[in-house]
């Protein structure tokens, strides 16, 4: 079992370089080769790729280990300067792309079904309330994971 664990660890750590290179290439191609008719959608793609680079680096540095046995789910960090709350951070940050995607899907839904509501995305109050609700969910999850 030790050799399987070691193989998984090597594959996980070696996937950081291709992940960073692929996302960097994607950002470069979006910036240089994308057509203007995709508009602001390219900025969303750049945000996704940039955040994926951040997650790959974070995963490489913190090196979380997940152990699952019947009835138990445990996560430990193989990180010298770790503390208890640091264990929760990779899992909370893993949910950020989902929040961005949900916001994007809401925007697309309103473009197709309710075009009058698209103007809400330009209002600071709407953006602030959307950001506050997502931040509240993250705060709730982080405290529930911590305690």
Automatic annotation (TrEMBL):
Secretion signal, residue range per the UniProt entry: none
SUPFAM superfamilies: Family A G protein-coupled receptor-like (SSF81321)
Keywords, ordered alphabetically: Membrane, Transmembrane, Transmembrane helix
TM spans (from-to): 15-31, 43-62, 82-106, 126-146
Keyword field contains Aminoacyl-tRNA synthetase: no
Pfam families, per the entry: 7TM_GPCR_Str
Protein name, as recorded: G protein-coupled receptor
């Amino acid at each position: 079992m030790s050799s399987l664990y070691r193989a998984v660890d090597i594959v996980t750590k070696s996937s950081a370089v291709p992940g960073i290179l692929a996302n960097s290439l994607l950002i470069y191609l979006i910036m240089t080769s994308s057509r203007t008719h995709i508009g602001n959608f390219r900025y969303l793609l750049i945000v996704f790729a940039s955040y994926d680079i951040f997650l790959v680096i974070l995963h490489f540095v913190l090196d979380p280990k997940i152990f699952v046995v019947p009835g138990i789910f445990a996560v430990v960090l193989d990180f010298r300067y770790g503390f208890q709350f640091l264990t929760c951070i990779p899992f909370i940050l893993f949910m950020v792309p989902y929040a961005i995607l949900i916001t994007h899907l809401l925007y697309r839904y309103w473009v197709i079904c309710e075009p009058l509501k698209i103007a809400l995305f330009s209002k600071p109050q709407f953006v602030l309330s959307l950001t506050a609700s997502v931040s509240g969910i993250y705060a709730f999850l982080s405290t529930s994971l911590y305690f």
